[in-house]
Amino acid sequence: MMGKEKILVLCGGISKEREVSLETGKEVAKVLKINKYKVAICEPDRHLIDKIKKFKPNIVFNALHGQFGEDGYIQAILESQNVKYTHSGVISSSIAMDKEISKRIYIKNKILTPKYFIFKFNINLINQKLIIQINKKLKFPVVVKPINEGSSVNVFICNKNNLVKNLKKLSLYKEVLIEQFISGREIQVAILGKKKLGLIELLPKRKFYDYKAKYNVKAKTKHIIPVDLSKKNKNIILNIAQKAHNLIGCKGVTRSDFKFYKNKFYLLETNTQPGMTRLSLVPEIAAYSGMSFIKLIEWILKDASKSR
What we know:
Layout: E1 6-10, H1 18-34, E2 38-42, H2 48-55, E3 59-62, H3 73-80, E4 84-85, H4 90-97, H5 99-108, E5 116-120, H6 128-137, E6 142-146, E7 156-158, H7 163-168, E8 175-180, E9 185-192, E10 195-203, H8 211-215, E11 222-224, H9 231-248, E12 253-261, E13 264-271, H10 281-288, H11 293-303
């Protein structure tokens, strides 16, 4: 469709998801090269603008994950260079990455999401009062996680006994999100622009679908597709994912993560730059729907623009 175009694949970076980003970048670059695109792989370092000017890409494929790649910073730099780039723009990326802001949008628009409150980090406040507050607002167990990390980085399921220990592990963050733990089925939905691409269910052998369950083959997370849901429930979850995508103002591809419990879908978060590795879910959903990996990548490239 667009072979021979120059594509700059941006990957790596300094976030805790660097290794996954490098793998995404490698897979994207490989399939583009096979299909006759001129491809360069680039780290988002202090020479990024010089590299863009030198290579003069038709499109920048943003394969970064996590902080400084998925939260609006890189998007702002790319827009300043008047270059076409993929995935969501500055504002939508920053909103989706901020778990509190995105949750407020969900709640305002009647999308069910686990109850939560923000804990402003103070080692002296990790005490009996906090446990009473959790019992009153959420009940144990709870999920404790940073507000602006992806890929389940530094996410802990806590009970009364391990809450203090796990919160202390997050002491580098100014504030963290303490969220109601929802048990039930892990279901994730892929959206391509206005197209509801499909869904997949995950059966992790670990305690939950954490970083290792997502990216380590040895974790043996089971991917189930098609998902065993009624047609009505499939439509409901697809519509919620599309609604969240639109409300946040996302562009290109997103993946929304849900828990399905007692016949209700709880939206956990919307990811604006889902992985494209061998274990990634969006390519798997796409393949099941009849869209090959190269067609998926080409769709994302075709969707690219200078202003997102």
